[in-house]
From TrEMBL:
It comes from Streptomyces yunnanensis. It comes from the Bacteria. This is Uncharacterized protein. The lineage of its organism: Bacteria, Bacillati, Actinomycetota, Actinomycetes, Kitasatosporales.
Amino acid sequence: MNSRSITTDRLLEAVPDDPTPLAVSTASKTKLGVIHLRFTKAAGIPDVECTRITVTLPVGDTNTDLTSNPGNIDYKHSSSGRSWSINPSGDRATYVCTPSGPGGKFVFTDTAHFTLILNAIPVGRLPGEASLALTASATTSTTTSATTNQPDEEDWTVPITKAVDDFFFFRAFSCEQPQIPNNGTATLRWEGSEHETEYWLSYDGRDPQQVTGQSAQIAGITDTTTFVLDARTPNPDTKEFDQHHYLSTTVTVKEPTIVAKELTAKRINVPQTLTADSSNKTTTLHGRTTFEEDVTIMAQLIVNGTITNEAGTVQIDAGSGNITSSGTVQGGSLKAGATYGIANNGAITGSGLNAGSGNITTSGTVQGASLQAGTNYGIASNGAISGSLVNVGSGMITGGAISGSSVGAGSGPITGGAITGSSVSASGNITASNGKRVIRVGDRIELEVNSHDKQLYLYCETGNKDNVYGGKTGFRNSIWRVHYKDSN
């Protein structure tokens, strides 16, 4: 700080230790000043006894005021000799300093001094000169007048210069919290000159944005982020702000959302949800991949190799949808739910097998204790086909016995085996197992006899017989052969 000459009549002198001007505050930052006001006796005079020193600060918001808010000023002192007591006024604009100890006096010798230290002074925003008002109650030890030991009140001022801080400095760029939660807000702070200085902030590849003051808040941070602050000063030749000064700081994110072009890791632990996505909707996993919990596939699962179940049970639950395969589904045992199964020997197990509106097709044998073909039809374990209607389409029912109250073969033949029942209906011929045709009602026949007497008898209800046709008589053991002629 600058000092001025003190009038030579003064017993005490007071000068600031540091003549550097105090930097004025700005709209965005309050500058805090420090004053070390050192009191000594004037040169060439005897020792001076002092009982009190009072220092008053000019308070206001003009260029001749030191501060507009003295309430937070801190104070202390240093002294060569006895201690001093410092009593500030309520607003801390005035400080009364008195020596402690017997007699309440402090003797300023050539080497003795008292220094009042005022810290954290909020310096006003206007440059100028502020005068501190000083009052000292002091007297020399050689005074012989009637006023001996009666101290004089000396009043004088000490100027303090306030100036714009025009030198460049840039430091202490950091995050208020080194770690924030996911999607949290990072509060950044720094110290730097404001005179002819621009600050530009960038991070995560974003274009730099100009910021003002000495702090900035960035919201929505989801991953560990490095912030770069660029302090730009004017070029002395072009006056353009193209002189760059960089500082950086990094804030970490708890449970971050990581976005990476490529990630290499020996182990990745995901306690909740792992979402793997890409611009072409393709995710490639090389090597062995283990899923210890449920895996949900919303679209198709395409496997070019083999799905192997080494232990436990592989369960595929289609819910209300379908499980479709265009190839062969095979394995040691394929389980189709809690009630259905496909064993490795080809057997279908379960209490019921339902194909819905589709077909169950096999080129082999379908067998079991009971094969139920719906609510109307069934194939029992004894080989019987039960139901109101059995339809084989254009095929054939062959082998074994076909029984029932009505067996209809449609327009096709019923061949092989025995047909039993109260009624047999066929639109075609009925052939016996020996290849002979069965005569039906309405058929016309021819009779051929190979006996010698050539006689045909008609039996009546009385048991008598009459000749229908007589040839030679005398032969009773005649054999007649029936020949089909045609139908009416």
